[in-house]
Amino acid sequence: MANPVSIEQLKKDFADFLKQKMYRNTQERFLVLEHIASLDRHFSADELYFHIHSTGARISRATIYSTLDLLTKCGILTKHRFQSESAHFELSARKPNHDHLICVECGHIIEFNVDTLHAIEQDVCNQFEFKPMKHSLQIFGVCKDINTCEYNK
Ligand SMILES: [Zn+2]
Ligand SMILES: [Zn+2]
Considering just the CA atoms, what is the radius of gyration of the chain in Å? Predict the structure, then answer.
């Protein structure tokens, strides 16, 4: 399926955010955003750095890290802490309302969306008179199929 996120809209949202917060509106930051949109998956800051450099673009690690930080603050990116060592990011609008299974051996990530979870969220919030905004569920385990587990290759 094609990426439903419009890069033009993301750029506009980011430009508005930078202007509002009075951050410098540099071309490099928008280049980083374009690369992220083309990835269409979860990534760590280092993976993004290597991806950008593999295309021949030269953007410093510091710029990439600070841009990730700004994009997260602005809500364009969602930051996940799947495992303690490094954060993973993904476009918030890419696939709303999904949760993750994470293989602790190979780092493989599976995305899923089940209605029962949303029902539980509603139930629990009703019970405690709480207004839900979002939830995040991460199930850690290992790949059952040895062929899809990178670690076992
Ligand atoms: Zn995801
Ligand atoms: Zn695995």
Answer: 17
What is the C-alpha separation between 59 and 57, in angstroms, rounded? 6
Number of domains in the chain: 2
- Per cent of the chain over pLDDT 90 is 65
CATH number of the domain where residue 84 is located: 1.10.10.10
Alpha carbon of 110 to ligand 1 centroid (Å): 8
Residue 3's pLDDT band, with cuts at 50, 70 and 90, is low
> Each residue of 98-132: pLDDT tens digit?
999 998 888 888 999 999 998 999 999 999 999 99
Query: How close is the Cα of 145 to the center of ligand 1, in Å?
Result: 20
Question: What is the 26 CA–ligand 2 centroid distance (Å)?
Answer: 39
